[in-house]
Amino acid sequence: MFARTFGGTPYGIEARLIEVQCDVGGGYPSFTIVGLAEKEVAEARERVRAAFRNAGLSMPEGRITANLAPADLRKEGAGLDLALAVALLLAMGAVPPSSAQGTVFLGELGLDGRLRGVRGVLPVAIAAREAGLSRIVVPPDSSAEAALVEGVEAYAAATLTEVIGILRGTREVQPVARIVPQPGPPPDAIDLALVRGQEHARRALEIAAAGGHNLLLVGPPGAGKSLLARCMPGVLPQLGFEEALEVTRVRSVAGLTSPECPLVMWRPFRAPHHTISYAGMVGGGHGVPAPGEITLAHHGVLFLDELPEFDRKVLEALRQPLEDRKITVVRSGVAVTFPASLTLVGAMNPCGCGHLGDPGRACRCRPHEIAAYRKRLSGPFLDRMDLFVEVPRLTKEELLGEGGGEPSEAVRVRVERARAMQGRRLGAEGRTNAQMSVGELEEGCRTSREGRDLLARAIDHFALTGRGYARTLKVARTVADLEGAEEIGAQHVAEALQYRAPEEVFG
Ligand SMILES: [Zn+2]
Fold first, then answer.
1. Which of 247, 328, 372, 503 has the most CB atoms less than 10 A away?
2. Distance from the CA of 333 to the center of ligand 1, in angstroms?
């Protein structure tokens, strides 16, 4: 007898539904899977056999053929096990023919018949909704994630026996409740209230968050650069539901979701070590490409400490995705596009020894060493940074002084107000000044006469390039937005000019 059902498999942060067709016919007993199945999928035969035995079922006598459609799509992982088992149950008449209609089955079968969670449950549930399917059956650990999708009822089953009970109608089950947590700061975020001194850097953080600008912190070791960077997710606007779904989809395909926290309601903070590989940064790996750090940082912060220590090739690979806010990865003929809309925060010492410009300690670097150090970052890469901030080591007075400053939440309120102004001006919620096109820059950056005069003088005095000019104007626009000003004034331009690349470092 012939039967079919649905499973699913993630591609990028999307998923494709897979139709699992099964035929049981006469002939010498065999079990064949066709349809571009990778090794793990082919091994499903053994897991299905063992799970059947443990559920007290015997495999049908005769020739079993399973086909995974569409045939041109590479299938990986063990997530199709359950769909395969259900298709076989249908084909051998062990469950009612219409019991699996409109249902997607997702889960890995253990040899004991238990179901184990798999990657990509959320994207598969979204794909099910888009295909007009109304139910999804998953292992208990994945059920809260599957239940996030409105319009699809999620059912939890711990074993193959429980799935059979659901299909035969002998097991009473309710769909899993949809739980959407309140948005909040990341559990590991550091509050700005804990940061002492560093008024200039705090302000730069606020501007970067308000305008979606990338930020480079330059200062000696121990100045607190990474502490400041870790405050960033807490001052960015809170995630909306759709953004949270995207963040969770990324984590889901990366296998990072947990049953305790089905929906990630905070902005990610990723801080890969400088030894990270090209594939680790942009995505890739064997078989179907996996998301890299730039995608894991989607809607959040990518923090690169010791920036000049990173492999130059890895940094250069960031240039295009920083512009496009997405990355396409091709591996063994499979092209997958991942989102990568993030705020980049870089940190570096001003020179190899770290003490160039440090009043407390003399720099031991020779001039050619200083030049070689700064050359590790290319001009085009540095062009992606909107704000440069010198972070000095704190003085004894500052270190011993009264506590920190304003808490992150107060800063975030101003940031959200400034973002609302940008959304209105740029005609789309979520668009920021950093993303302005040349046309939007012309139209949206109305500047007072004094502001224009100051800009003109800056072009001469600091030898601002075209890019430097655009960058200054964008940052000035953000400073004005933080103030609620429609027009860019001279004071906004003056503040923006403070965040130019420091000359003693980048000369
Ligand atoms: Zn030095």
1. 247
2. 47
